[in-house]
Specification:
globular; about 40% helix
Length: about 350
């Protein structure tokens, strides 16, 4: 990692995010002021397959990336030479998708003679909370997304310690699988959330706590319980009680997430709890966590809905951490689908 010899007080970073099925480019000032954020979604493309097809995602990124970069710069109202650095998601994610963003970022960095900053996708989700306000340390982050369910303790800025993670399905994956069982299209999470909030009754489904002192998560057993409830109704020739199942599933998921997050905040003495990741857009989770934190006197921060799902702005916010430390990455930087959050900085 090389030093960047330039002014550290301010930055204007263009960031590229292509870790999965969204092509996104943003320009962010000083790690917290979004000048532009452009996203090209592939949801309609992957809906036909019931989930993300990696090869298709990579191809769509290639088709979109150049136009998205130009649009983000135009919307930001700046010249290309006004940029301080080019940031890009290095990992984790789908390797083919990551390579598209990495190639575009390197090309832009070379063309503009700007530093390249490789960025961790989950660090991006966490630091999307900078768009709400300053983060106070020590802090605890509850990361909930399609591929990750983690509790991350941050003793100080840029320090990440994973104290809990999923042992099987991530919460977003569990939502999509339950949605599919209930007959909803991909992505299924918003459908389950809506149905759960509308339902008057809740199916009795298990809570998976694991060991008494564990901060890990497990959703495969809950998912199996949902499938069992659906199959039993079908075998009896009865209508599947989709609303009750959705509400029972969501209440189980939310209770475990909230309880473990609150316990972690107390045990580690965190000043703030940060909710982040695509599932942070779930209304049931946002409401339950807000109510519980108010009752416990815990400061809770949640990014706006548009910065919960994958976006380039969050990558720029995380890249600002490296910028302030005068760090950049070499042009032979490689995409890393298994990039470690704890060792990223």
């Amino acid at each position: 990692m090389n030093d960047i010899k330039t002014d550290r007080q301010h930055s204007c970073i263009l960031a590229i995010e292509t870790s999965c099925d969204e092509t996104s480019v943003a320009v962010v000032k000083d790690g917290c002021e979004v000048l532009s954020s452009v996203i090209a979604s592939q949801i309609e493309t992957h809906k036909a397959f019931g989930g993300v097809v990696p090869e298709v995602a990579s191809r769509k990124h290639v088709e979109s990336i150049t136009n998205i970069i130009e649009e983000a710069i135009r919307e930001a109202g700046i010249g290309k030479n006004d940029l301080s650095a080019i940031a890009v998601t290095q990992g984790p994610g789908l390797v083919g998708a990551l390579l598209v963003g990495m190639t575009a970022a390197k090309s832009l960095a070379i063309a503009l003679n700007k530093p390249l900053i490789g960025t961790h996708h989950i660090a991006g989700h966490i630091y999307a909370n900078r768009f709400v306000g300053e983060i106070e340390y020590p802090s605890m982050a509850l990361v909930v997304s399609g591929g990750h369910t983690e509790l991350v303790y941050m003793k100080e800025e840029g320090s990440f310690e994973l104290i809990g993670r999923t042992r099987d399905d991530a919460v977003g994956e569990a939502y999509d699988k339950v949605a599919r069982a209930l007959g909803f299209p991909y992505p299924g999470g918003p459908h389950v959330d809506r149905l759960a909030l509308e339902a008057e009754a809740a199916a009795d489904l298990p809570r998976v706590w694991l060991e008494a002192d564990s901060y890990d998560f497990s959703f495969s057993g809950l998912k199996s319980a949902v499938l069992n409830a659906v199959n039993k109704s079908k075998m009896r020739g009865e209508d599947v009680p989709a609303g009750a199942i959705a509400r029972g599933f969501q209440e189980s998921v939310v209770e475990v997430l909230v309880e473990k997050a609150v316990r972690a905040v107390k045990q580690f003495g965190a000043k703030q709890l940060l909710l982040c990741g695509g599932v942070a857009a779930n209304k049931g989770l946002r409401t339950a966590l807000t109510d519980r934190c108010e009752a416990e006197g815990i400061q809770l921060t949640i990014p706006p809905f548009k910065y919960c799902t994958d976006n380039g702005a969050m990558i720029a916010a995380a890249a600002h951490l490296k910028w302030k430390r005068e760090r950049q990455d070499p042009l032979d930087l490689k995409a890393d689908p298994q990039l470690s959050l704890e060792s990223w900085m």
